[in-house]
DNA sequence: ATCCTCCCCTAC
DNA sequence: TAAGGTAGGGGAGGAT
């Protein structure tokens, strides 16, 4: 066999990388973080253990308690009050990125940009405390493994969670940095470039057995062997690891996240269980996850890629599309660029990359399959037909287990056979869109343009592992934790949701209590229900209130719950002054008549400093301050619609819109009350009040008040507090509130209904018309 | 037609 | 033990 230059080269690269790592280690020892001792507060990314490992490796100290030794507190997200409390003993409170970036930079970076209370700090997330760990973590109460919440613990070990998180991050990174990235090549005119043929040059990059490749950087002895990344452990080719359970590994249901190509020769595949894998290859070696390393490699991959083209479409942490149409004159030239791109990435990350390229996204992707491992392949226009003919349909993106099965029933297993099926037939079986896509893909046709940024449509949190409840209250408590996690993510991404949905996995009747996978979900039915809001939110209190209400509606048997998730849908932006795409300034009429769940208009304002000053010093102050940072309510500041107050009361919410779900959740006597007030109302004449001036109303920061600032559970206090707010609000207007302003109040009441805040004061007279009237007779 | 809700499927 | 998340495309079937 001829000398394999590629292999030799990669061997050298790895060797170099290894040397470099060792050098870094030597340099790092006692260097970067000498004199630095950190204390990690709460849940961070990376987690406390990882940070400890990093800091110690680079000469710093780690403390389990906030002692005087501590020079820096590390936290990802903290309420302002807590930051102040933590920083009193002159230690700085910094984001973990300070540590990561310092390591990357090879020197101690100034903390300035990473201090949580500084203006430039990247995010201010609220920490999610679990019910069991919500005690203040003070100096005498260091965080331990034990008081980490289930949610945090789970996520820190979940590969799929990391995969999703990184994908989101990289999408954000790309859309933010792509426009201002310094590029290696300058664009050609469309007369010179590939475009002169009316053709695109699309490259698809994908790291080879990503997790394994990263793991093997530090385990050169395992190169060329069947290796898999998994949580299950026995040997590792490393001496000190205990050979725990030779036999039990055969039954392990732990997933293989990634396996080497040598392992694939045995039939092992990503996603397989360890038990299956070891049966296929008893000599398979398992190595552990190293999430932070994967993260760093992904980051480097994307930093590198965006210097090659202004057209980059992120796919995942190890996969990306790049369009070169404007940078090359021929496919040969593109091939050379791809070669250098691949070696640059391998040089920087120590991981091998394969690349496929062709004239559209589909074919570039298919070409990558042929290129792997550690190669590149150009699928030319002439080759397409022949190549596709033998390509199994399951290789087409979007065709998975189910559709492959479905096609197989039709006698179709490769693209050549798929071509024989008529378009109408495909549409009949798979629906209009899917049918058409199949028709095109079978022919190598793909007219999609590469998209560099896509607007997020939803944000969600879910756990379908380890869910075992006896009481419904336990499930509710978990929903509360998930709500906090969701709030935290919504804050980070700057979104508000107008729709909240709850998703449950419920054990199937015939499925056994004990799942095959330890604490897995087993065979389940999925059920979901959503609730529209009139005012978008990112508040965990709002979210959990709605989620729990939805849970009650779905009324599952607590012991059958195997998974739960919450999603925010119909998103709008919470960033001040940032216009929402497609958003219109809402006039009163629009607001009054809009269905719940509609996107919020561009015009927004925060509760702002007035709310803060109004209640500063009161017990609820810190809550409202936090809320102020989170939620910015939409306003009715602009527009000239004139709807009478009376008609507003009559029109909103239309009976058809009054959320059935909320209604049904009420005791039946309350339901009747509500129906009653609706039916009475229809008989009434519509009364129009004084015409209202069309000038913009006084900016009103008092309404609506923060729900979480009101006394839930105590009807009398609730009412009184709300009255206080109304009085303060009215007092703002020398000549009394304009009609339009009262609509804000109406909106507020509606939102109370949305959020089930009114479920708490279970007093019939608060409901229906009398409820509204009561507020106005102050 | 088009929209909405509740799914199912797919990909990493 | 094991860490089965998450976003998006799209279909079925009903309401408008
Ligand atoms: N079921 C899966 C599939 C993938 N991954 C993770 C581990 C993989 O390393 C990474 C990238 O997925 P790929 O599909 O790109 O697979 P690999 O990179 O491992 O192999 P290759 O791309 O060479 O086929 O995502 C996972 O955890 N579980
Ligand atoms: Mg890969």
TrEMBL record:
State if Magnesium is listed as a keyword. yes
InterPro entries of this UniProt entry?
BRCT_dom, BRCT_dom_sf, DNA/RNA_pol_sf, DNA_pol_Y-fam_lit_finger_sf, DNA_pol_Y-fam_little_finger, IMS_HHH_1, REV1, Rev_trsase/Diguanyl_cyclase
The Basic and acidic residues compositionally biased stretches are 133-148
Q: Has the keyword DNA damage been applied to this entry?
A: yes
Q: Where is the BRCT domain?
A: 28-116
Keywords on record: DNA damage, DNA repair, DNA synthesis, DNA-binding, Magnesium, Metal-binding, Nucleotidyltransferase, Nucleus, Transferase
The record's region (Disordered) falls at 128-148, 592-625
Biological process (GO) annotations held by this record are:
DNA repair; error-free translesion synthesis; error-prone translesion synthesis
Q: What is its main location?
A: nucleus
Cellular location(s): Nucleus
Record's cofactor remark: Binds 2 magnesium ions.
> UmuC domain: which residues?
202-400
- Name the cofactor(s) required for activity, per the record: Mg(2+)
Query: Can you provide one Gene Ontology molecular function annotated for this UniProt record?
Result: metal ion binding
Q: Which domain of life is it from?
A: Eukaryota
| One GO cellular component term | nucleus
Q: Where does Mg(2+) bind?
A: 206, 318-319
Q: Which SUPFAM superfamilies match?
A: BRCT domain, DNA/RNA polymerases, Lesion bypass DNA polymerase (Y-family), little finger domain
What family does this chain come from, according to its entry?
Belongs to the DNA polymerase type-Y family.
Question: Under which name does UniProt file this protein?
Answer: DNA repair protein REV1
Species whose genome carries this gene: Amphimedon queenslandica (Sponge)
Which taxonomic lineage is given here?
A: Eukaryota, Metazoa, Porifera, Demospongiae, Heteroscleromorpha
């Amino acid at each position: 066999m001829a000398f394999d230059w590629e292999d030799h080269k990669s061997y050298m690269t790895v060797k170099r990388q290894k040397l470099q790592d060792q050098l870094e280690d030597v340099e790092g020892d006692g260097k970067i973080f000498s004199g630095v001792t950190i204390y990690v507060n709460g849940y961070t990314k990376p987690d406390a253990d990882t940070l400890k490992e990093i800091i110690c490796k680079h000469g710093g100290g780690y403390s389990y308690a906030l002692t005087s030794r501590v020079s820096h507190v590390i936290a990802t997200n903290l309420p302002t009050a807590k930051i102040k409390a933590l920083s009193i003993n002159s230690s700085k409170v910094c984001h973990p990125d300070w540590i990561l970036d310092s390591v990357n930079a090879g020197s101690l970076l100034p903390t300035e940009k990473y201090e949580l209370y500084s203006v430039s700090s990247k995010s201010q997330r609220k920490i999610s405390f679990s019910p069991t760990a919500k005690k203040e973590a003070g100096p005498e109460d260091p965080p331990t493994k034990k008081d980490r919440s289930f949610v945090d613990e789970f996520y820190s070990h979940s590969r799929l969670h990391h995969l999703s998180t990184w994908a989101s991050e990289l999408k954000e990174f790309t859309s933010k940095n792509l426009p201002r990235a310094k590029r290696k090549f300058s664009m050609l005119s469309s007369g010179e470039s590939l475009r002169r043929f009316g053709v695109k040059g699309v490259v698809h990059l994908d790291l080879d057995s990503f997790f394994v490749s990263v793991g093997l950087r530090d385990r050169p002895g395992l190169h060329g062997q069947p290796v898999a990344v998994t949580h299950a452990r026995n040997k590792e080719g490393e001496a000190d690891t205990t050979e725990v359970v030779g036999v039990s590994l055969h039954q392990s249901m732990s997933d293989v996240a990634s396996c080497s190509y040598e392992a694939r020769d045995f039939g092992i595949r990503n996603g397989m269980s360890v038990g299956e894998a070891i049966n296929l290859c008893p000599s398979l070696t398992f190595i552990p996850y190293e999430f932070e390393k994967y993260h760093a490699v992904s980051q480097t991959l994307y930093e590198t890629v965006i210097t090659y083209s202004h057209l980059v479409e992120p796919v995942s942490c190890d996969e990306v599309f790049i369009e070169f149409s404007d940078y090359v004159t021929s496919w040969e030239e593109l091939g050379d660029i791809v070669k250098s791109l691949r070696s640059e990435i391998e040089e920087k990350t120590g991981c091998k990359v394969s690349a496929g390229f062709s004239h559209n996204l589909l074919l570039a992707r298919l070409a990558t399959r042929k290129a792997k491992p550690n190669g590149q392949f150009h699928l030319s226009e002439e080759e397409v037909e022949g190549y596709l003919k033998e390509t199994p349909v399951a290789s087409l993106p979007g065709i998975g287990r189910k559709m492959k099965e479905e096609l197989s029933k039709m006698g179709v297993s490769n693209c050549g056979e798929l071509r024989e099926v008529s378009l109408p037939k495909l549409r009949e079986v798979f629906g209009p869109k899917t049918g058409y896509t199949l028709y095109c893909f079978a022919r190598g046709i793909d007219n999609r343009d590469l998209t560099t940024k896509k607007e997020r449509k939803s944000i969600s949190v879910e756990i379908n592992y380890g869910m075992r409840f006896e009481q419904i209250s336990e499930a509710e408590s978990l929903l509360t934790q998930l709500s906090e996690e969701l709030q935290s993510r919504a804050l980070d991404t700057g979104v508000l949701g107008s729709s909240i949905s709850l998703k449950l996995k419920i054990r199937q009747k015939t499925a056994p209590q004990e799942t095959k996978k330890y604490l897995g979900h087993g065979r389940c039915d999925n059920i979901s229900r959503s609730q529209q809001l009139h005012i978008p939110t990112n508040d965990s209190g709002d979210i959990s209130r709605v989620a729990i209400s939805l849970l009650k509606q779905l009324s599952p048997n607590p012991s059958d719950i195997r998974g739960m998730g919450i999603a925010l849908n119909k998103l709008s932006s919470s960033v001040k002054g940032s216009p929402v795409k497609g958003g219109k300034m809402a006039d009163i009429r629009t607001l009054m008549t809009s269905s719940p769940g509609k996107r919020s208009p561009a015009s927004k304002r925060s509760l702002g400093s007035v709310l803060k000053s109004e209640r500063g010093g009161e017990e609820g102050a810190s809550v409202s301050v936090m809320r102020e940072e989170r939620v910015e309510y939409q306003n009715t500041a602009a527009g000239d619609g004139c709807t009478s107050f009376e008609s507003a009361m009559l029109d909103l919410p239309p009976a058809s819109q009054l959320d059935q779900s909320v209604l049904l959740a009420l005791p039946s006597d309350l339901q009747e009350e509500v129906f009653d007030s609706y039916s009475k109302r229809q008989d009434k004449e519509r009364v129009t009040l004084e015409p209202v001036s069309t000038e913009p109303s006084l900016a009103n920061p008092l309404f609506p008040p923060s729900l979480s600032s009101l006394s839930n559970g105590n009807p009398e206090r609730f009412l009184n507090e709300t009255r206080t707010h109304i009085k303060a609000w009215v007092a703002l207007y020398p000549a009394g509130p304009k009609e339009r302003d009262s609509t804000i109040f109406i909106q507020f009441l509606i939102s109370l209904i949305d959020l089930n805040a009114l479920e708490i004061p279970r007093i019939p007279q608060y409901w229906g018309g009398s409820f509204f009237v009561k507020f106005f007779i102050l």
